[in-house]
Amino acid sequence: MALALRLGLRNLRRRPMRTALTAAMLAIGTALLVFSVGLNEGVYASLIDVATGTWTGQVQIQAPGYEESPSLFETVNEPGPLLAALEARPEVVAATARVEVAGLLGAGARTVGTLLQGVDPVAEPRVSTLPAALSAGAWLPTADPDARPIVIGVGLARRLGVGLGAELTFMGQAADGSVAAELFTVGGLIDSGSAEVDAQLALIRLADAQALLVLGQRVHRVVGRLTSADAATPFAATFQAPPGLRLLPWQALLPGLDQSIRSDRAGGQIFMAIMLVVVVLGVTNTLLMSVFERTRELGLMKALGTPPRQLVATTLWESAWLSVASTALGTALAVALILALRDTGIRMFDEPMEFGGASMQVAYPILAREVVIYPLIIAVVGTLAGLWPAWRAGRLDPVAAMREG
Asked: Does a structural domain hold residue 240?
């Protein structure tokens, strides 16, 4: 085996230009593939962080069917113990409860439809980034229980023609069948960067929403922020929701984003398949040429008693040296580039790109598991591409081979 290893490396040095060209093809192809994967996975991670961190959260607990058809009467009846159970898990950074109801928000003669959200003023900033997007005013205060503050999006403020300090009237339905009506004072404006969100956003304190809708302590959603979006699926598989409730990971809450990422990853797998075809053709061609050029030499070695398995092993070691060294070089180049750009990122678009309901402008490549898996596949396939030339070398007839040479 040691002899075959040394002979394989020596044979590659016989035609340094051909070996260098093949190695360069494999190295550059591997580098492009690995960097593309790292960049794509960085884009996916950024989009998921934006989409889940802004408002949705990585997991939610709610009544069955509520996500598909929200109803005022489908509630989580005892959120307190559930919030405590969530925050006791190491994967959970924070959790909060929310109430929501559709209704009319009016200012003077102007009235618009909105989805009024009741949030915990203390817990909500630890779960979502919307409270940090205040462009004017202040977040929902907790000191004055008699006040009726409301925070709205800048787009909604424009639609109503109001600013800080304006009074807004909300009208909707309460859980007991009565009319839910209350007067609120605009205490803050949020500019989230999403025109769609800012045109509808209306937030009040959770306790005010529960009193307005006659819900008691009931809520509609319990939202959890996890250490990472990747933890959502295993967390959903291990956390037991209370009877009559269900836990949904972000993939179920944002199916458009999840499907967009799956489709885009499928395109990356096509790139991988094309790369593997190129590897097989390149390595096979190089080794076949090497075997053809050494036909007389191989025939002489066989006539002197060299066993066929020795010739096969030597040729396979050629392909192994060529494939492993080239993919290792390409992977090292790609990893170095990913590390260099991981913090600064790459500005990919002049305007934010919409992707599955989230948007981004700068991509930050990351070291995903495919950075290791894909080069390993390329190296293995490249090594196996030497099987045909190796088989031909082992099957040579000594007399015919020496005559051909």
From this structure: no
Q: How far is the C-alpha of 202 from the C-alpha of 187, rounded, in Å?
A: 11
Tell me: do 186 and 143 sit in the same domain: yes
By the 8 A CB rule, do 343 and 42 touch?
A: no
Q: Are residues 30 and 14 in the same domain?
A: yes
pTM higher than 0.85: no
Task: Determine the distance from the C-alpha atom of residue 137 to the mean position of all C-alpha atoms in its chain, rounded to a whole number.
Answer: 34
In whole angstroms, give the CA distance from residue 176 to residue 328. Answer: 68
Handedness of CA 356, 358, 364, 370 (dihedral sign): negative
Query: Which residues have a Cβ under 8 Å from the Cβ of 25 and sit 6 or more positions away?
Result: 278, 282, 326
End-of-domain residue from the set 185, 206, 227: 227
Encode pLDDT of 198-249 as tens digits: 899 999 999 999 999 999 999 999 999 999 998 999 999 999 999 999 999 9
Q: To which residue do tokens 């009726």 refer?
A: 148
Question: pLDDT per residue over 269-328, tens digit each?
Answer: 787 778 777 777 776 666 666 655 555 555 555 555 556 566 666 666 677 777 788 889
Question: Reduced to 3 states, what is the DSSP secondary structure of residue 119?
Answer: strand
**Beta-ladder partners of 185:** 149, 167
What span, in angstroms and rounded, lies between the C-alpha atoms of 275 and 35?
Answer: 14
pLDDT tens figures, 121-130:
999 999 998 8
Distances (CA, A) of 198 to 50, 120, 158, 191, 359: 15, 20, 10, 6, 15
Domain of 285, in residue numbers: 2-51+258-404
Q: Please state, as a whole number, how many other Cβ atoms lie within 10 Å of the Cβ of residue 309.
A: 11
Same domain, 335 and 375: yes
